[in-house]
Design a protein that fits this description.
The complex is a heterodimer of chains A (496) and B (329). With 496 residues, chain A is mainly alpha-helical. Chain A is built from 23 helices and 2 strands. Chain B has 11 helices and 10 strands. In chain B, strands 1, 2, 3, 4, 5, 6, 7, 8, 9 and 10 form a 10-stranded mixed sheet that branches. Classes of the chains: A mainly alpha (496), B alpha/beta (329).
Amino acid sequence: MDAVNHLINGFALALSPTNLVMAFFGVFLGTLIGVLPGLGVSSTIAILIPLTAVLSPSSGIIIMAGIYYGAQYGGSTSSILINIPGEVSAVPTLLDGYPLSQQGRAGPALGIAAIASFFAGTTGLFGLTFLAPILADQALLFGPPEYFGLMVLALTVMVSLSGESLLRGLLVGTFGYLISLVGIGHTTAFPRFCYGAVALAGGFDLISISIGIFAVAEVFTGIGESRVMISAKKIDNVFPSLREIKQTLPAMLRGGTVGFLLGLLPGCAPAVTTFLAYDLEKKVSKHPERFGKGAMEGVASPEAANNATSSSGFIPLMALGIPCSPPLAILLGGLMIYGLQPGPLLFEQHPDFVWTVIASMYIGNVMLLILNLPLVGFWARLTRVPYGVLGPIILVISVVGTYSLRNNMFDVTTSLIFGAIGYVMRKYDWPTVPLVLCIILGPLVEKSLVQSLAMSDGSPMIFFTRPICLGLLIAALLLLIVSLRLMRVTEEKVKS
Amino acid sequence: MRTKFLAGFLFAAWILAALANVGYGAEPSYPTRQMQLVVAGGAGGGTDVVARAFAQFVSKKLGQQILVVNKPGGGTVVGTHYGLKEARPDGYSFHTDTHACSSMMVAGMLTPPATLEDRVFIARVIVDSMVFAVKADAPWKTFRELTEWVKAHPKELTYGAGGPAGTSAYGVNDWLSNVGLNPLDARLVTTDSGMDALVKVAGGHTILACNTVAEAYTLAQAGKIRVLAVASDKRSPFMPDVPTVAENGLPPVRVSWWAGVSAPRGTPQYAVDRWAKALEEVSKDPAFLQQVQNLHYTVLYLGPAEFKDFVHKETEHYTQIATKVGVRK
């Protein structure tokens, strides 16, 4: 139990007044960034890197890590309350979170999100504490064919997110895939559908489209129906009941497990993880028809997945120096500036540093829970603000958020246009989620397919000769069958 | 009457002030406000980390804030267009120049977003060498052995690279054509980043990676990859045990990674001079040197004239490779 001794030492150092203040500062800033869409975790950490010149290594990294996992907590707030996904990974949260807000249950939804985040974040940290060296190497086993298998598996989620008409879902998905093609092609480095415009060469930003299709379209809809406020019902209780927590606990566990395992894989987009967690929950649920209309499990599961991912991402980062996501890449840069070389030697040469940071993440997760729960009541009241006031504010946040993505008006225009598209789609009952899902998955499927075929010199046998890949493809097939069956069952239930 | 007089007086004063400005020479006090340094890439990438170090240290020398502006997208196309063509050449906007926004881009694209003539070269500050790496338990112990194996199995080599016109691809192309092989026989697996290419090698999914010392250092230390050779004249101080390509008895591979600062064409000379001087001082600053060393880069300063010459020569070399391999489009 070497790890326990180290961790106790780490706690002793992490509980020093300076480090406590640093952890608080980090998670507070992270929450703020998570709540405000557009302002990315990556840019915030990058901007703070000069701080490393004045702070000690552990203090500096404690702040940066705090921002990183803190943002995952805050990310759910804007999704649930006002349908703005700050990060693409927050899209599954809003599918049920926002309907809950409309039913006057924003408080319990936010509470469950915070508890799920805490639960999964902390469980993920146990994994980091005790299993880091074993798990880090497993991440290397995933090559392009395995990612291809995983992405095909993720594509089956399309079925359960298409709503009533699978055909419409597939059409919308195809449209999404076409949009994802615009820009410099990943494999050829050749511009596609750019028509000579430099702005198009950069492609469409996924977050600007998500904000458009969810938040902006929602405001347009609100104007259309002259909505008075988000929640028509009176707010009964601000906190989730003990029963609700108990009911969603299995969802947190499942979502957290999915998030933790997929979080180990570099290059597996967090959005893929949360979508898979959400889909899994819908599949195991006895009432899949409730999903999308305000199922508490639909909030708990993706939020747990999100935060488990942020904990497990530290495993390949610290053990091998492999960053699984852009913010972690910057964190890696921060470590290097301090002269701390990640890898097995980091644990041997700088145990104090490593374990102080890990201990501070346990502490930070507790702080986040304490920080977020009292705010729930305040946020929940936002849903009773007159829509004439709130609507324009949501639009302003959307515009500022999309602009700050790449400091580019192009993204603002994109989100407004997709707001209009989203409005029309909702009006005529077309599903919008497959659009976002295919924009996420399209490039990933294409990339892993082309990479795999380059490895095998064009032979598709590569997908069937590698055990992990084959297993994933079989699982995808099974999931597809289950999804189609489930769809029929749900239809019958709705009819009767 | 009075207002008219006042207006006339103000006008005269304004003319005088303007004349005075001209009279005191072409060099206004500079810089008088915040400047921007454009990065053609996202926050946290290799170029971004370097640009933030430039901004931090140059800002101290010039006494004004320098805002790092990230313009990711389309490889480096969007950012390079923004930094060199859209930005105003008023001495307050600068571009973090790299091989990927200059020599390599001009060599790889028939219509690049910015040509070499679209910029004023200020200084090159940081360089890094490319290394060739295979999986830690791969059968090849030296670069020579790998070369012999590729000669025997020219169609079986797989390697990771950001694209057919990126640093890694140029490195592999240069090596293969130097030893008389057709680079197009090798299988290029496109990767997201240098780290991604190395992770694929560490996991045994591709055979070879050609990336920078800084990128390869961590996985080499962790014992997941074996670095076979470094593509530079001398061994890297960070990997003293790794021989150069020439030490393996092979023709040298002339591809390198570098970062410096350029400005849009038309930027006033005084601004260029101030920045060149500031960057020269920065590249001797011990704190800066330490930071760069921690990132496993090397500081090697080139002033405006030498920098321009360097990039032009490199562009010629890359254009040759690109034309030969047929990636110029």
